[in-house]
Design goal:
The complex is a heterodimer of chains A (154) and B (729). The relative contact order of chain A is 0.16. Chain A folds into two domains: 71 residues, Beta-grasp domain (Ubiquitin-like (UB roll), Roll); 77 residues, [2Fe-2S]-binding domain (DNA polymerase, domain 1, Orthogonal Bundle). Chain A is built from five helices and five strands. Chain B is 27% helix and 24% strand. Chain B has a seven-stranded mixed sheet. Chain B has a five-stranded mixed sheet with strand order 2-1-3-4-5. A five-stranded mixed sheet of chain B has the order 14-24-21-20-15, with helices on both faces. Chain B is globular, with a radius of gyration of 27 Å. The chains are: A alpha+beta (154), B alpha+beta (729). Chains A and B meet through helix 1, helix 2, helix 3, helix 4 and helix 5 of A and helix 6, helix 7 and helix 18 of B.
Chain lengths: 154, 729
Amino acid sequence: MTIKLKINGAERSVEAEPGTPLLWVIRDELKLTGTKFGCGVASCGACTVHVDGEPTRSCQTYVEDVEGAEVSTIEAIGDDKIGAAVQQAWKELDVVQCGYCQSGQIMSAVGLLKETPKPTLEEIDEYMDGNACRCATYQRIRAGIQRASEIVEG
Amino acid sequence: MTVNTSRRSFLKGAGAAVAVLAVGIDPKGALAASTSEAGTAITPFVKIYADGTVAAVIKHFEGGQGTSTGLSTLIAEELNMELSDITFEMAPSDTAVYNNLFFGALQGTGGSTAMANSFMQYRTAGAAARDVLLQAAAKDWDVDVSELTLANGVISGAGKEGQIGEFIATAAQIAVPAEPVLKAPEDWTQIGNTQKARRDSHDKVNGEGIYGMDIQLDNQMVAAIKRIPQYGATVASFDDSAAKDVTGFIMAKALPNGAGVVAYAENTWAAFQARDAIEVEWDLSKAETRSSDEIKQQLLAAVNTEPQWQASETTLGAASTALEGAAQVVEREFFLPMLAHATMEPLSATIAATEDGGVIMYDGAQGPTINHATMHQILGIPMDKIQVKTLYAGGFFGRRFNAGADYIVETTLAFSMTDQTRPVKLVWSREDDLAGGWYRPAYAHKVRVGLDDAGKIVGWDHRVAGQSIAKDGPFEAFYVKDGVDISSVEGTAENPYAIPGMHIGLTDAAPATTVNYWRSVGHSHNAYVMETMMDVAAAAAGQDPVSFRLAYLPGDTADQKRKADVLKLAAENAGFGKPLPDGHFHGVAVHKSFGTYCAQICEISIDEDDYVQIEKYTAAVDCGVAVNPDVIKAQVEGAIGFGVGHIMRDQITLDGGVVVQQNFPDYEPLRMRDIKAIEVHIVKTNEAPSGIGEPGTPPAGPALANAIAASGRDLVTHLPMTENGVEFA
């Protein structure tokens, strides 16, 4: 079936079977490969995108369920003030190692800061619990979120 | 300027005609300069582009450990430029030029060797490039070279100034010095600089970094494999009729090696669905059918009998005699389960035909030579028509390099069974990854330590049993001596502690599955046992665990001194031995691996419901000259998390030969909440750089175990901890 999506502000028509995870439409059809496949069962957070501003695991979201919604991915998150701040903080602190989970970490971090502009360490740990990093860059992700909060505050 | 692995320049590919000067080692092993079009394989370490851009050519792939930054730093230093101004490109596969100097004729990354290998090689290439550029400018301007200097990409002197890209044509005609003068350590501005300037950071925070999983070639097919359910099984027959109902399904073919059935489809989701729909009848006549409990009992029985191999100079008889004369003997039996690497990026590689009748493979290649040879052997294509494009790897921890070259062979076989007109991308799911073999083997240890009246160690009988990683494989000659696979006992063997009367025995176990190198390899289990036993012995002697260890590191050798120094540094910074808040406990561990010394103090808290929380790790590391201190800190932070996460709660188990763990809920990764803080201290030294990717892993588990035991609880000797009486907050 043909599905109309709003991805990163642009209207895109894709051919996909109902029940196809949004993740695979984003990666294989729209060729936006910044959103990663890690587990397919919403256990690692590597596939996190925003649907109407809410961090969402795209591997467990059917493509037909987001028709008409605003979907944004790592490729466009820098257009958002908080998104740009998180990316800047990540670079300032050299958060990444292998980097494969970091798109998802950043998308979740932006979600947290939109909800809670100055999160405590406990709030960070709780919100980011579903985003796994096998390189264990967690110390720096935590510090990166605090730094991004400062950048946004100005 | 974006690096060449980013999407933009990646898609631009070799089409862009840019003049480039390349300085490196030519195929005959001499330093050489040449010009060419960008993308031409000219085997350099340094490239200078006409616009003045400098690129370091990185021969050790980037899987997060920081090689793209580390090797770039060496080039930037000698070219008198800032690390933040240099770019990098991954080297093509070419064993003659890019081989790992420790591995012989093999281009690859492993054993934490990247910096130890490259420290002189890349500085020399950078210095040679600097000298050649200065000579070129002198020639073009007709002045004496001694009047000129190079800094930040600009050559100046004799009243003139020009950016380096202007001189690359002349530079290519100048003989490259074989032994250029390197900058003196006191003149270094980039090596040892604490800046945070990872070269791969930009790409990885905006989604532009390209990993194997991200390859999207025109007209590519995606392949997923229905794999054998247990070790030793083969495909008897299969039925793909249900797969034909999957939109996008193309075809299914059995792998010629019997290891599974390949489903080909138009996209990844269709490939996974089609794969799941294929019905396979397996031949289980030669399959592994044991369960983990049975294997565990067999390993524990093995360490209670006479060992098969002797891995120490001291014999079992001598150690036994020493133990008989001891005032007291403490003993413990250990079991450490199989572990998966579970890289964040599931395995994936893509192969495509090239216009000249050859093939190219896109892969986060840990050993590009292996990709190269695999394609040559399976496809019969001449070596010079084969290319390997190395991409970012989404973690490796050893997984992407094994005796069977598993996913590389699979990708090539999957391509070989098609008409080879369409690119084939092989994709592993997380279930494939966790259940797909190539694990850290399971091991049992049994240790008996004898102490005299003064609490001094007089004898140590240490037995290890487990499946050998190297035996019967291509790396056997490298690892196995006199029957002992050093990767089974390293860390107990070759330990700097001066322990008298120490016997190490090894018994090989029958294969239960495919096994592989896993971050820190043998040290991952040997350090757990050695360092918890040092605490057991210290307690029996009634001594403080830090001073007890220091007694066996008298500093008679540099090895002992360096190990003692990191221990003291960590203990001092953590305030080891000083009062802690109620319910808080310290545990210590120190271990040498890959030429590097790392000590860690783990502080835990235990609440009234007995939940354990890791409050803080304080680490000290001596890895020789710290080329990029911040990358070193990051590696130690990550290695601690990787090491302790598995000790806490992970294991791969078999039920009737079939792997139980299927996805992350069954193999729970370390999460952010698990460790509240990590602090890393680096020893200042002029020793040559040694490894840093792995050495932070071995001490992390025993430091936690010793902290838990310090609370008065029993030492956890069977892992993972969560299956053996420990609950984490």
